Amino acid sequence: MGNQINVGYTTPDKKVIKYIASVWPQWADYNNLLVDINTDKTKIGDQTIYRIWTQQKI
Q: Which sequence spans correspond to the domains of the chain?
C-alpha cells in the first residue's frame, strides 16, 4: 500500500466548490496524483453546506 493523501473542503458557497472542482484536476496532475473528485451537499438547519474532497485512485 502506498501513501494516501486526501484533501477536502466544506463551505456554504456553491461558487467556491465549483471553482475548486475546476482547479483540483490541474493540482492533481501537477503533483502526479490520480484522484477522483467527489462533491455533495447537505442541510444543517436551514443552511445548505457543500462539500468537495479527493479520493486517491488505486
A: 8-56
